[in-house]
Every structure is written in structure tokens, then in C-alpha cells.
Specification:
The protein starts with a strand and ends with a strand. The chain has a 3-stranded antiparallel beta sheet with strand order 2-1-3. By secondary structure, the chain is mainly beta. The radius of gyration is 15 Å and the shape is elongated.
Length: 68
């Protein structure tokens, strides 16, 4: 039996000029995500919300993840 392991990451929903979009980068913690937003040159007041999402942790062999 293959056990799937998930890791929680965080993404920021941003509001820029009245339009909402998801920041392309994500962080492992809320604090690291805030640091990424600051490094991108955006203000913290532009963050609408920070939402968690699950990422599948797969072992990799070479350049691509395993298929099974």
C-alpha cells in the first residue's frame, strides 16, 4: 500500500489596483510568505487573505517525480 504524505503550504491572495490575484510564490509558513511578499516589493496591506493548501510530497528520482 502506498501512503500519500501531504505538506501544508501557504499562498497569498493579493489586491492590486482593485483586482485580486494569487501570488505566484508560496511559503512553508505564514511568516515566510510575508517575507516573500515584502521581497517582491508589495505592501502587506495588499494581502486580502492567506490561505493554506496541501502539496503532495513525492520522492524524486532524477528530474521527474515517481509515477507510482
Amino acid at each position: 500500500m502506498v501512503k500519500e504524505m501531504f505538506k501544508t503550504k501557504f499562498r497569498a491572495i493579493m489586491n492590486v489596483n482593485g483586482k485580486e490575484f494569487t501570488l505566484a510564490k508560496s511559503g512553508n509558513t505564514e511568516q515566510s510568505l510575508i517575507k516573500i511578499v515584502k521581497e517582491a516589493g508589495m505592501k502587506l496591506s495588499q494581502i486580502v487573505k492567506i490561505e493554506p493548501f496541501q502539496v503532495l510530497v513525492e520522492k524524486t528520482r532524477g528530474k521527474s517525480p515517481r509515477k507510482f
